[in-house]
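Input sequence (257 aa), recorded before submission:
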Amino acid sequence: MSINSRLVRKNLSRFKLVTFDVTDTLLRFSRPPEMQYAMAARHLGCHGIEEQALSVCFGKHFKRMARDYPNFGKGSKYDWRWWWRTLVMDIFRDSHRHLSEAMLGRVADQLIEDYATGYCWTKVDMADRMVELARAHGKQIGIVSNFDPRLSHILEAMKIPTDFIVTSYDVGIQKPSQEIFDFALSLCSSSVLPGEALHVGNTPKLDYVGAKRAGWASILVNVNKQEVCSDSEIDPRHVFANFQEFIHALETTEMKW
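Predicted structure, token format:
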């Protein structure tokens, strides 16, 4: 066993479970949403599609939908598919008013299917290595993500092996609520206490603060360290610009959890 491997084992020794967020933690979009949306529309025969107009409208309508129908519509009379279909159609209605309602529906349905495959996603650099490292040291691997039910298909397509997947839509609870982290513990094959779990994510409030308040250890990756560390609830020792930096710390530094 190498010196690096011994230190990694020591750093991870208290944990039985390591969970990950998905979007911008393990996976990111292979192209910006406005580009993906434009490509889908053009493929279906739409003309005059402007990506910048889509970009402006995406942010506005996404915030509105998340406010009015949180957790992709869970608990309302609408489901996640309706949520995304409404979002896409409203974005195009606002930005490209010449498109017919029938065409808007076709574009929305196409995008819903596209985002359920590996076509719209790419792995974050060294995400595979981090998952393999945790697995090699005997940890259970889970996903805790504010996501809809397509996530299992996406992770399968992207060949990211996990022991379980917790999505906010399926359990009806969103991060940063403690309940979603508690639910993840209940899915472990053997008993895991909160202090024996580590969550890795990229969103300070949802991932880091949520996990810490649930009694877990937590790490932030793929973030701007200077911006993130301005929050008094964030321990700078737990913040890393990318997985390479985090893995290097595991191999060379005795971590303080």
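Checked by second reader. The first helix runs from residue 3 to 11.
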